[in-house]
Design goal:
alpha/beta, Rossmann fold, 8-stranded mixed sheet
Length: 309
């Protein structure tokens, strides 16, 4: 466990939405995550979501749209892959998009301008907690809910998972993806649990008030779903991101963006030397070397949860 220097404040990346967006977009560009998602969607998603929804609720031949909820949808790259696959069986889809980052939501809206023929959208530029409050008086339920890489950011994981399950229509499916606890970001965050927060905690419990929420991983979701007695099954997908610039002796903007997104801090290169070197060693330990370049390896666990009919 890396010890933090209490005299140094590691500024959370969420404090600057524009910088978060810039770092997020760079992190997206240096990896094969979208390609991995496409392959995974063609194989696993089609069987465990599309075909299962048809079996549970029908194929939409009654003219009613499939109701979809996206939580933390970002710029829509992953969600649109899912929607296009659902469109093969459901001729009409209405999607409610919940995304607190206005910049990313605008990018999503731009991405679907020429692709939204069979889609209608309800744009919600707000946090998931704010959205849940709005839904408390609503009886609307969703057939498919996508929460990909978003459970890092909810304030209370147990409340969030219960709310998501409650929003499912009978026969509906909830998909949650999150980093595996034993690889990539999950391993790094367990090494340095105070990144991205002004507090530090040795408590890795799912609902710790001190643990920075974005440090959650698959083990936390496992634990909470079991506590809530919600059945699920899992799959996984692996991606790689080229992070060679993180190890350059000379500082670069690309290396800084990658390190800042990894640690969820702003200006991590300004951290104490010992801390910086220990974290860099952990990042290298979570990476593989190919042809002189370093690739950060991340495995994501995919939780499938079905509401009984």
């Amino acid at each position: 466990m890396v010890e933090s220097d209490k005299s140094v404040t590691l500024i959370p990346i969420f404090n600057d939405q524009a910088y978060y967006t810039k770092a997020f977009n760079y992190w997206r560009l240096i990896g094969n995550y979208i390609e991995a998602v496409h392959k995974w969607t063609d194989e696993t998603f089609y069987v465990h979501v599309v075909e299962k929804l048809v079996a549970n609720i029908g194929d939409g031949s009654d003219g009613k749209p499939l109701r979809v909820l996206g939580v933390g949808s970002g710029r829509g790259e992953i969600e649109l892959v899912f929607l296009n696959k659902l469109l093969l069986k459901f001729p009409k889809i209405h999607t409610c998009v919940v995304e607190p980052c206005a910049n990313l939501l605008t990018e999503y809206q731009h991405n679907i301008k020429e692709k939204a023929t069979n889609f209608t959208f309800d744009w919600q530029n707000r946090t998931f907690e704010e959205f849940v409050k709005l839904q408390q008086e609503s009886s609307l339920k969703y057939h498919f809910i996508s929460a990909c890489n978003s459970m890092y950011y909810v304030k209370n994981l147990q409340e969030a998972l219960q709310s998501l399950y409650d929003m499912l229509a009978p026969g509906g499916i909830l998909l949650i993806t999150i980093t595996a606890d034993y690889t990539g970001s999950g391993k790094l965050w367990r090494t340095s649990p105070y990144f991205g927060s002004e507090t530090s905690s040795q408590d890795g419990s799912p609902n710790s008030t001190l643990l920075p929420s974005h440090h959650r991983d698959s083990a936390h979701v496992h634990d909470v779903l079991r506590q809530l007695h919600i059945p699920y099954h899992i799959d996984n997908t692996t991606c790689y991101r080229k992070i060679t610039r993180c190890f350059d002796a000379k500082e670069s903007e690309e290396g800084n963006l990658a390190l800042d997104f990894l640690t969820h801090t702003i200006g991590f290169r300004n951290a104490p030397k010992d801390l910086f070197q220990q974290v860099l060693a952990c990042v290298k330990e979570c990476s593989v070397q190919r042809g002189g370049d370093w690739f950060f390896q991340s495995e994501h666990i995919c939780f499938f949860i079905t509401k009984p009919t």
